């Protein structure tokens, strides 16, 4: 009962957040100088032609009216039609989103699977050589721009070693993407690098905090071996704050996808967003932002739900 | 044979600033079924000895000498050997039940883990054993409670769970490091009874680390007194507490506030009948104050119809168990919390009706000293800045020179040497820090001092000096004092009137001596009975009579 109430409340909150995001993005987009007409009609277009285009697209109406109209069509599942690609935005997203999800989810999984044990290992070996080496590598990975890291990986693993192709799998469907797993390696590693760096730091700090807790001493005084204490008690306690961070990391992952998709020529949401931004393709841009904000909201919601499952205290506090 | 034998134990911690010797030449033993109390003030090394006996010292500790538990050497043993001993041959109960248990693991599972560390039993069998253990330590509905998480239990119940873990494999030696310090007196009495019964049943030897002489008198057979890392006196509990031979032990015992119990010599020794006084002269008056936190079903009624008066120059002790609302009442008196019902009059003015500057100037007449001197002073300010801050806020017209003069004056009042003024709070000892708090509270010459557990975090000898300073200054400056404390002995010594709180309401009140020596309510009687007195003979007699009362 409590859980149902909690979920309903959180879903309503999430809806409100998404709505606010669309308002903000809508206003920002239309505040930009230029507009789509010039880009689509070309430099030769006369002012009359531009005015006609704007009128046709409804761009000459007051902003609130445009927004209400946008929201109205949005509620009917219509995200509008791209100015440049002549296709429904929903159709474009439908094609691109799964591919980006594959990339980001794989990057996140690889990142977490490596970062969590790495962070714990560092905490256990604090201020020993291992800790220093991993810390140094983390800072390097974190401070290297994604595109530079991608180029570096291509240089080493494609040009020199010839282990992996520099081009991500090209097919349109997911089965085509998965048919060439080797080609996914470099994009996924590029996307995961900063995630490993950031989350191993979180996990290290969190584990260190927990290792100093009294319950560790209690468990040891009951005769539990160091590894058992780490696995049964410290691991779960250290993970909860890290889970909370994960939700907030969703937009960062999408941001990374923007660069990774460019680099490895992988036609997902990132490439779509980038080209739409170039040509002021409002409907596509809004669609992309909507998708990312929904993904972020879902991410934080999932993180909160997982936390409620893992940590019984959270449930007791919030219901 | 002894279950614990320590010979010439030395422990040194290597830190960034050099080696710090913590324990020197400590030799002691615990025989089966006997309790040895290790007493001393903070920093005396008593906890270090306890941790050394468990092999739980941190990595930067260097240990010399010999420790053997049930014949097995501890010093120099590796992790595997130590894990084999811990929880089976020797167990430990810690001070903080709030943090001693893994918050994410059900308590039954935590107990079962200790069982399975040392016995080849199935998970189901271990779970059954855990329930049995919970029953043995007096947890009601153990089958149900085994699946509770620690946060769902009270402090006393958590400590019972820790004890259940400690006795899971019937160890020969139990090390209890301040096992009741974080608990209310009534809960403390229950936990001590439990430990006593367990030790008597199984012949377990107990090493009890504590600073509380009442607990020692109540529980120990023999006592070892530690000072600066060395044992200065050992003997039976009667010898050490009643006929101390070492100078330090005598000083320590003299500093312990003693709760006078039994029949009062004459009625009305202190204080007068409260009804006769004129209430308009009160410094602070809470009238029918109610405070609640939260909304709906989860509303917590922190205070219900609490009325409380402090008159000029008098000290009112506010006592009660944790959660009884005494600190909440103090916060209302300080104007930090708006009551949901009732009124607060400060120096005759209704606090709810004063706003802005008038309110600020009214509140500047109240000084406050809180429990934790580390947390209540800004670590980035010097002592002088901490003390001067109220002057900057409330005495805008003062020049820097006048402020400096006033700060120096107040520091002298609280007996702090002037050269400390430039130091940071962290460079001072606990007692010095608390005197800085006091100086800060008194710098505006308040008419009321609100002291919330001002000495609970301090050692007894330090507590004594801080209390003496407060009492002396009160005589000199004439401020009234609302003194919140869970320590009945301190309140008895310090307050003219006492207000006993229970679950958000005033249970009873009156002149200190009358109320504490002839309590009218059962609750106050229980509260007083639960305080162990630092005299083993008297304490044994009290316990016996209580036991009779309980069985009757």
Write out key terms for the chains shown.
heterodimer; A: 319 residues; mainly alpha; MetI-like fold; 15 helices; 79% helix; globular; B: 552 residues; alpha/beta; Rossmann fold; 2 domains; 6-stranded mixed β-sheet; 20 helices
Largest sheet of chain A: none
Mean pLDDT metric of chain B: 89
The fraction of residues in strands of chain B falls at 15-25%
CATH domain class name of the largest domain in chain A: Mainly Alpha
Tally the structural domains of chain A.
2
List unreliable stretches of 5+ residues of chain A.
none
What is the name of the CATH topology of the largest domain in chain B?
A: Rossmann fold
Task: Tell me what you see in this structure.
The complex is a heterodimer of chains A (319) and B (552). Chain A is mostly helical and 319 residues long. Chain A folds into two domains: 2-75, no CATH class; 90-318, MetI-like fold, CATH 1.10.3720.10. Chain A is 79% helix and 0% strand. Chain A contains 15 helices and no strands. Chain A has helices at 2-31, 36-41, 47-57, 63-75, 89-124, 129-143, 146-160, 174-178, 181-211, 214-221, 226-248, 250-263, 269-278, 282-310, 312-318. The longest helix of chain A is centred in the middle third of the chain and has 36 residues, at 89-124. Chain A is globular. Chain B has 552 residues and is an alpha/beta fold. Chain B has two domains: 4-253, P-loop containing nucleotide triphosphate hydrolases (Rossmann fold, 3-Layer(aba) Sandwich); 282-292 and 302-365 and 446-533, 3-Layer(aba) Sandwich (Rossmann fold), CATH 3.40.50. Chain B is built from 20 helices and 20 strands. Chain B has helices at residues 46-54, 79-85, 107-118, 123-136, 142-145, 155-166, 185-202, 213-219, 237-242, 247-255, 326-333, 356-363, 383-394, 400-413, 430-442, 460-477, 488-494, 512-517, 522-530, 536-551; strands at 4-15, 18-30, 35-39, 61-69, 72-73, 90-93, 173-177, 205-210, 222-227, 230-236, 284-293, 300-310, 315-319, 341-346, 349-350, 366-369, 448-452, 480-484, 497-502, 505-511. A six-stranded mixed β-sheet of chain B has the order 6-7-8-3-9-10, with helices on both faces. The longest helix of chain B is centred in the middle third of the chain and has 18 residues, at 185-202. The two termini of chain B are 40 Å apart. Residues 264-276 of chain B have low confidence and may be disordered. The A-B interface holds A 213-215, 217-226, 228, 232-233, 236-237, 240, 310-313, 316 and B 54, 56, 79-80, 83-88, 91-92, 94, 96, 99-105, 110, 113-114, 117-118, 149, 151-152, 162, 165-166, 168.
């Amino acid at each position: 009962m409590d859980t149902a109430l909690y979920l309903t409340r959180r879903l309503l909150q999430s809806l409100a957040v998404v709505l606010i995001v669309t308002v903000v993005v809508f206003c920002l987009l239309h505040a930009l100088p230029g507009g789509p007409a010039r880009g689509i009609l070309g430099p030769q277009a006369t002012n009359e032609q531009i005015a006609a285009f704007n009128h046709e697209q409804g761009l000459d109406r007051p902003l609130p009216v445009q927004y209400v109209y946008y929201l109205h069509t949005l509620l009917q599942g219509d995200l509008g039609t791209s100015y440049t690609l002549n296709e429904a935005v929903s159709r474009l997203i439908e094609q691109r989103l799964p591919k980006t999800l594959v990339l980001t989810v794989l990057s996140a999984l690889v990142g977490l699977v490596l970062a969590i044990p790495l962070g714990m290992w560092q905490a256990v070996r604090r201020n020993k050589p291992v800790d220093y080496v991993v810390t140094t590598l983390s800072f390097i990975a974190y401070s290297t721009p994604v595109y530079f890291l991608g180029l570096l990986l291509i240089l080493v693993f494609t040009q020199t070693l010839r282990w992996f192709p520099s081009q991500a799998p090209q097919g349109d469907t997911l089965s085509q993407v998965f048919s060439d797993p080797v080609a996914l390696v470099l994009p996924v590693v590029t996307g995961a690098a900063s995630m490993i760096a950031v989350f191993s730091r979180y996990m290290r700090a969190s584990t260190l905090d927990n290792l100093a807790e009294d319950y560790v001493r209690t468990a040891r005084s009951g005769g539990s071996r160091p590894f058992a204490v780490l696995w049964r008690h410290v691991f779960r306690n250290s993970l909860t704050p890290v889970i909370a961070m994960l939700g907030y990391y969703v937009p960062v992952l999408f941001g990374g996808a923007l660069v990774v998709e460019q680099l490895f020529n992988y036609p997902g949401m990132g490439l779509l967003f980038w080209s739409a931004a170039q040509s002021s393709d409002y409907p596509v841009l809004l669609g992309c932002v909507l998708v990312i904000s929904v993904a972020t909201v879902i991410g934080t919601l999932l993180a909160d739900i997982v936390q409620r499952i893992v940590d019984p205290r959270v449930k007791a506090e919030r219901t | 044979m002894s279950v614990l034998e320590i010979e010439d134990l030395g422990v040194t911690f290597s830190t960034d600033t050099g080696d710090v010797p913590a324990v020197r030449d400590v030799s002691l033993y615990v025989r089966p079924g006997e309790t040895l109390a290790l007493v001393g003030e903070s920093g005396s090394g008593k906890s270090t000895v306890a941790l050394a006996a468990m092999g739980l010292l941190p990595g930067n500790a260097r240990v010399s000498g010999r420790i053997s538990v049930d014949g097995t050497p501890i010093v120099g043993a590796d992790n595997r050997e130590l894990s084999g001993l811990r929880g089976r041959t020797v167990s430990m109960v810690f001070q903080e039940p709030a943090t001693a248990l893994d918050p994410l693991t059900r308590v039954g599972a935590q107990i079962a883990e200790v069982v399975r560390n040392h016995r080849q039993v199935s998970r189901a069998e271990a779970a059954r054993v855990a329930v049995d253990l919970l029953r043995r330590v007096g947890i009601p509905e153990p089958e149900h409670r085994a699946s509770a998480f620690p946060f769902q239990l009270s402090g006393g119940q958590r400590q019972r769970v820790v004890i259940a873990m400690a006795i899971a494999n019937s160890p020969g030696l139990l090390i209890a490091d301040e096992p009741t310090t974080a608990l209310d007196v009534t809960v403390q009495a229950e936990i001590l009874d439990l430990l006593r019964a367990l030790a008597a049943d199984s012949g377990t030897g107990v090493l009890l680390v504590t600073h509380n002489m009442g607990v020692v008198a109540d529980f120990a057979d023999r006592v070892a007194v530690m000072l600066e890392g060395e044992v200065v006196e050992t003997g039976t509990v009667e010898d050490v507490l009643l006929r101390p031979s070492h100078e330090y032990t005598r000083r320590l015992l003299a500093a312990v506030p003693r709760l006078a119990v039994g029949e009062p010599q004459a009625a009305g020794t202190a204080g007068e009948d409260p009804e006769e006084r004129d209430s308009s002269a009160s410094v602070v008056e809470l009238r029918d104050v109610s405070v609640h936190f939260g909304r709906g079903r989860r509303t917590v009624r922190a205070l219900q119809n609490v009325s409380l008066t402090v008159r000029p120059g008098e000290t009112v002790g506010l006592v009660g168990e944790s959660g009884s609302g005494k600190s909440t009442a103090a916060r209302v008196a300080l104007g930090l919390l708006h009551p949901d019902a009732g009124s607060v009059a400060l120096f005759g003015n209704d606090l709810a009706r004063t706003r802005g500057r008038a309110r600020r100037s009214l509140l500047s007449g109240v000084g406050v000293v809180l429990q934790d001197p580390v947390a209540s002073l800004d670590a980035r300010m010097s002592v002088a800045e901490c003390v001067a801050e109220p002057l900057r806020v409330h005495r805008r017209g003062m020049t820097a020179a006048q402020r400096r003069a006033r700060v120096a004056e107040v520091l002298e009042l609280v007996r702090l040497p002037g050269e400390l003024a430039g130091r940071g709070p962290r460079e001072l000892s606990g007692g010095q820090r608390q005197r800085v708090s006091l100086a800060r509270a008194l710098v505006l010459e308040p008419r009321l001092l609100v002291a919330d557990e001002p000495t609970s975090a301090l050692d007894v000898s330090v507590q004594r000096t801080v209390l003496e300073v407060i009492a002396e200054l009160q005589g000199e400056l004439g401020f009234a004092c609302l003194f919140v404390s869970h320590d009945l002995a301190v309140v008895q010594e310090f307050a003219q009137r006492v207000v006993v709180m229970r679950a958000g309401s005033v249970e009873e009140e009156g002149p200190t001596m009358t109320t504490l020596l002839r309590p009218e309510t059962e609750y106050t009687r229980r509260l007083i009975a639960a305080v162990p007195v630092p005299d083993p003979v008297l304490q044994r007699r009290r316990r016996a009579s209580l036991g009779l009362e309980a069985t009757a």
